[in-house]
Amino acid sequence: VTNDLKAFQAAVAAVAKNGTVWVPAGKYILDVSSTNSIALKSDMKFVMDPNAILMVKPNALTRYYLISVSNASNVEISGGQLFGDRANHLGTTGEWGFGIRLGAGAQHIKIHDMKISDMWGDGICTGGYPDDVVMQHLLVTNNRRQGLSITTGTNIQVLDSEFSFTNGTKPEYGIDIEPDGAANGAYANNILIQVNYFHDNRA
Predict the structure, then answer these.
(1) In what helix (H) or strand (E) does residue 103 lie, and over which residues does it extend?
(2) pTM assigned to the model
(3) What is the pLDDT of residue 48?
(4) Which residues make beta-bridge pairs with 3?
């Protein structure tokens, strides 16, 4: 019932270098936006119990990030479930409500063994050239715009995961590699997509 965002932000701020934020089983609601999310820092793990669910509080925003990583390195995110607000979103426009956003300066990132579903936009989105990212053993399903968007980035691996039932607003792909501003030199380089399962995506 309570907005737990500040508690999560405080836990991230307090964790020591190479420490772990552990999320126990339970449902947690978070009132997030594009500027106010669970923003992870360098040299930490964010580990959720398999029965922990982080839920986006319904909003009318065109853009939000539940978990974000920018200007941080050596970050690991795993376990549990991220659940978006697509079923009860309060607005009708926009398509950029993301479960996880990897932004500029994100390096050496691991995301694994978690479910990401029902986002207003993408399950996961990369932008700003994150580097050395491994995504493995993910279930990314029923997101509105994309399962995974790789808009820019280098040395990204997507392994042993499922991308399914992407539907709601175009492009509606399981994975879309689409460098923002490609005409102006934007790029996504050295991308490995291996042993993944794609089904029931609209596109």
Answers:
(1) none
(2) 0.97
(3) 98
(4) 29
